[in-house]
Amino acid sequence: MSNVGLMIGAVVASMVLAIVVRILVEVVRPSDRHRADERDRDIDMRGEQAAGGVLGFGMILPLALAMAEAPHFWIANAIYAVFTAWAIATSAVKLVAYRRGF
Questions:
Q1: What pLDDT, in 10s, does the model give residues 43-74?
Q2: pTM of the complete model
Q3: Per-residue three-class SS string for the chain
Q4: Contact present, 65 and 74 (Cβ < 8 Å)
Q5: 1-44 pLDDT tens trace
Q6: Of 83, 92, 95, nearest in space to 55 by CA
């Protein structure tokens, strides 16, 4: 099997394992985490909207690398970096909103 096949297999296996473990945990000990009030929904929406700009503008870099025919390694790392920045921005906005309010 090639490296690409191994990578795809690892990703699929980890997704399936994560889903199965989450289902088992919820069956054994259900959580109240999925019951969000209005404030939680508003904070979640604001965090996603604010970080959406980071994701939108950040994807310009991998696009530019692809148009410049850069090696796949650098394009993939740029995509990963943008998604990491998006996740950090989302979390930061949500944390500030929870701590300081709107």
A1: 888 888 888 889 999 999 999 999 999 999 99
A2: 0.63
A3: CCHHHHHHHHHHHHHHHHHHHHHHHHHHCCCCCCCCCHHHHHHHHHHHHHHHHHHHHHCHHHHHHHHCCCCHHHHHHHHHHHHHHHHHHHHHHHHHHHHHCC
A4: yes
A5: 677 788 888 889 999 999 999 889 888 887 766 666 788 888 88
A6: 83
Contacts of residue 36, defined as CB under 8 A and 6 or more positions apart, other chains included, come to 44
Q: Which amino acid is at 89?
A: A
45/54 Cα distance (integer angstroms) = 15
In angstroms, the first-to-last Cα distance of the chain is 52
| 88 vs 54: CA distance, rounded Å | 10
The model's pLDDT over 71-100, given as tens digits with 9 standing for 90+, comes to 999 999 999 999 999 999 999 998 998 888
The residue whose two tokens read 């990703």 is 11
